[in-house]
Amino acid sequence: MLTEDKKRTAYTAVVTRVLEGDGRAARAARRAAFENARLAEPLRTLIDKVAKQPTRVTNEDVAAVKASGLSEDQIFELVICAAIGQATRQYETALEALAAAMTDKKRSEHASEDPQ
Amino acid sequence: MRLKILNSGYGFGTKVLFAFIHAVSRQPVPDAAKLVFYRPDFYGAPMKEFTHEAMRGPSAWSVGDRELMAAFVSKMNACAFCIGAHTATAARAYHDEAKVSAVLSDLETASIEEPLRATLRMLRKLTREHAVNADDMRAVLAAGVSREQIEDALAVCSAFNTTDRLADAFGFFVPGPKAFEAGAKFLLRRGYR
């Protein structure tokens, strides 16, 4: 795709770091938070709110996840993965839509250059 | 903030830096800064690189345009901290507070260039509905926006779709206008790195 784009490269570095680098939460848990999938309560509620309605996150949501046995450092990592995951889905969907629009544009430009 | 580690989990060097920032700006260290200084190897360092590239790297959009996009996306996400921070920064970059408040209160009637308006419309849909399609992109291209400009706007949008979520999930303290002014000066002088 846009491998030459410095912004894309820097973005990929963020995603790769939080998902694949060392962390206090297991890689599988970070991946699940990123994808907002395969999570059990009470973590599921917190992560889904971070992804879809972050202004609705409450002290109680965070307290419930702590009470379930996760450390603050693990919550820090999982919330970050959830935020980046949602932003990434939107970013990728938009880049695909742009690529599709560009393909049509090129096709119609070629058609007008070479009317057959 | 909702996690104690983000209020007090810093090493000696970072505490000294925070004391210095406090002394120079005469404002408390903003929670956005605290977030990227906590275990920076995990998130802060790579995220600062990306955000700086999106907001200050080469682009046909001006710094003011990109700060306006940041404020606008944050408005769509209803993120009070980032609306305050980037409204102040955009107004300062443009030397035009009225332009920024006009866009944030009604994009359709604000007196701005059509390419910027078409781009903000697309970012609004992407942020609110979490998706856009090829027709949405064709409308932006038809307004005279280049492919590269759209990619640059999407990078800004992605940075703030992440930051807005973290601000609200971690519960950033929303300071008053003086603190946002100090933050705007800092962001225009130093950027995000």
Task: Write a short abstract of this structure.
The complex is a heterodimer of chains A (116) and B (193). With 116 residues, chain A is mostly helical.
Keywords:
heterodimer, A: 116 residues, mainly alpha, 0% strand, B: 193 residues, 11 helices, 73% helix
Quaternary structure type: heterodimer
Q: Which descriptor suits the 3D outline of chain B?
A: globular
Helix content of chain B: over 70%
Largest pleated sheet of chain B: none
Largest sheet of chain A: none
Rg result of chain B: 17 Å
What is the helical fraction of chain A, as a range of percent? Answer: over 70%
How large is the share of residues in beta strands of chain A? under 5%
Separate helix tally of chain A: 5
Along the chain, the helix and strand elements of chain B come as HHHHHHHHHHH
Find the biggest chain interface.
Answer: A-B, 48 and 54 residues
Stretches of chain A where pLDDT falls below 50 for ≥5 residues?
Answer: none
SSE string of chain A, helices as H and strands as E: HHHHH
Which secondary-structure class do the elements of chain B indicate?
mainly alpha
Task: Describe it.
- The complex is a heterodimer of chains A (116) and B (193).
- Chain A contains five helices and no strands.
- Chain A has helices at 6-20, 27-35, 43-52, 59-67, 72-113.
- Chain B is mostly helical.
- Helix content of chain B is 73%, strand content 0%.
- Chain B is built from eleven helices and no strands.
- In chain B, helix 5 (63-76) packs parallel to helix 8 (114-129), helix 6 crosses helix 11 (177-190) and helix 8 runs antiparallel to helix 9.
